[in-house]
């Protein structure tokens, strides 16, 4: 779901401006908003599992058949964990904050590479209450640093904020998103994103693009409403 969101963005870029700056994706933050939208705002819903549940059980017959509500609870279980890509929506941004704080220290010259595992493990202990026993579960779990992609991680949090704001605006125009997803035809959300994000290419800077698409500058407000509403409902809070 996540990588498909990236692919849909690339496929939706304006063909008339291919191979020009105007025809490129505007930023990694916007790119991650498209991947996180399909992964979370669509993929982590009971409506989604009501559609794909039968396909899932057909592909994995060894797994007991569960109702969509049960599958959704599993997909949205909130629990501190070691691995960023397996994290729930509530704790995910803490994983990003750890990486951001470490990158800042490294580029300010206050942290050597040799000390990186110790600092990482200390932050995981303080923020998550977890003891990292192996670096493969800690500072070596991502590909980003090994490929030189420093400064990338905050784009995931930007993507989370943008995606929640896009969902609100989309719901205002398309109506009940839960019913739409449950119907199994997701062409309307895709068309909405294509018209307001994909086809705009790099015409506008990210803040202006999000404001044009949603009617408001990007903030954390929609994300906080989304998290509070969703998980209050799931956990009966």
Keyword list:
237 residues; mainly alpha; 2 domains; 11 helices; 0% strand
Write a structural description:
The protein is mainly α. The protein has two domains: 2-79 and 159-235, no CATH class; 84-147, no CATH class. The protein is built from eleven helices and no strands. It has helices at residues 2-12, 28-42, 46-59, 68-75, 92-107, 116-128, 154-174, 177-182, 187-196, 206-214, 221-235.
Termini separation (Å)?
A: 28 Å
Which overall shape is indicated by the principal axes computed on the Cα atoms?
Answer: globular
- The amount of helix comes to 55-70%
Question: Radius of gyration, rounded?
Answer: 19 Å
- Average pLDDT confidence is 97
Q: Major sheet, described briefly?
A: none
Number of helices: 11
Instruction: Tell me the structural class.
Output: mainly alpha
Compute the number of strand runs: 0
Order of helices and strands: HHHHHHHHHHH
Please report which band the strand proportion falls in: under 5%, 5-15%, 15-25%, 25-35%, 35-45% or over 45%: under 5%
Contiguous runs where pLDDT drops below 50 for at least 5 residues: none
């Amino acid at each position: 779901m996540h990588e498909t969101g990236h692919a849909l963005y690339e496929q939706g870029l304006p063909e008339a401006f291919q191979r020009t700056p105007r025809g490129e994706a505007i930023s990694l933050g916007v790119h991650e908003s498209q991947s996180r939208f399909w992964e979370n705002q669509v993929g982590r819903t009971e409506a989604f599992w009501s559609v794909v549940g039968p396909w899932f059980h057909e592909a994995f017959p060894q797994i007991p058949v569960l109702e969509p509500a049960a599958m959704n609870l599993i997909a949205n279980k909130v629990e501190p964990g070691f691995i960023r890509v397996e994290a729930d929506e509530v704790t995910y941004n803490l994983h990003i904050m750890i990486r951001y704080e470490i990158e800042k220290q490294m580029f300010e010259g206050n942290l050597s590479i040799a000390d990186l595992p110790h600092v990482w493990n200390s932050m995981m202990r303080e923020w998550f209450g977890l003891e990292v026993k192996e670096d493969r579960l800690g500072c070596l779990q991502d590909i980003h640093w090994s490929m030189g992609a420093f400064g990338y991680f905050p784009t995931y949090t930007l993507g989370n904020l943008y995606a929640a704001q896009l969902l609100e605006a989309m719901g205002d125009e398309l109506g009940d998103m839960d019913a739409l997803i449950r119907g199994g035809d997701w062409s309307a959300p895709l068309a909405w994103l294509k018209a307001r994000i994909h086809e705009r290419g790099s015409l506008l800077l990210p803040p202006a693009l999000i404001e044009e698409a949603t009617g408001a500058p990007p903030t954390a407000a929609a994300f906080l409403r989304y998290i509070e509403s969703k998980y209050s409902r799931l956990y009966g809070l």
